[in-house]
Amino acid sequence: SAVISQKPSRDICQRGTSLTIQCQVDSQVTMMFWYRQQPGQSLTLIATANQGSEATYESGFVIDKFPISRPNLTFSTLTVSNMSPEDSSIYLCSVPASGDTQYFGPGTRLTVL
Amino acid sequence: GESVGLHLPTLSVQEGDNSIINCAYSNSASDYFIWYKQESGKGPQFIIDIRSNMDKRQGQRVTVLLNKTVKHLSLQIAATQPGDSAVYFCAESSQSGATNKLIFGTGTLLAVQP
Known about the structure:
The complex is a heterodimer.
Chain A: E1 4-7, E2 10-13, E3 19-25, E4 31-37, E5 43-50, E6 56-57, E7 68-72, E8 75-80, E9 89-96, E10 102-104, E11 108-112
Parallel strand pairs in A: 2-11
Antiparallel strand pairs in A: 1-3, 3-8, 4-5, 4-9, 5-6, 7-8, 9-10, 9-11
Chain B: E1 10-14, E2 19-24, E3 32-38, E4 45-51, E5 56-58, E6 62-67, E7 72-77, E8 86-96, E9 99-104, E10 108-113
Parallel strand pairs in B: 1-10
Antiparallel strand pairs in B: 2-7, 3-4, 3-8, 5-6, 6-7, 8-9, 8-10
């Protein structure tokens, strides 16, 4: 199974600022996924990041708010821009695994004051 | 650690009992289903999966049952242990082009009483 790390593990930020979350995988993968998990809620897919192309965003998520970079096959970043308290969530990256499942990183716990 | 189960349905069982966690899925076209376990402060961990051409699959202490007629999925945990305490999510795979997106259910908090 892939080993996935995320940085930072948690952060407390002021409204109006931006935070960039990093996701590192120990093997090369074509696709990486970014999810949001709001407090007490399930996971919602934000976007799919393919290396060498623009990320594909799900309904309700836009590139200006959640810009994504995918510079190589083992790394991706998600930026949460112009944050508000409603952005307080756990942000998770994942990669495809055998079959059609996905392996998840440990998550980044974001609190916006 | 941070809890993700504050607003989730809760199943409370005694240690040693069997647990059954249920999930209703929405898309009749989904053909792949996964159960994940999420412990406090961690990301979801794969438990077991099943494809729509099966109605039952067994793993170590876990069994997944799929009823396509009523779009229902269940996870059975035998001899539940305190280490099984976590939030459990079902996910369905919605295949769209070359990307297999996962759609997650609402989750159930399993609380194992010693």
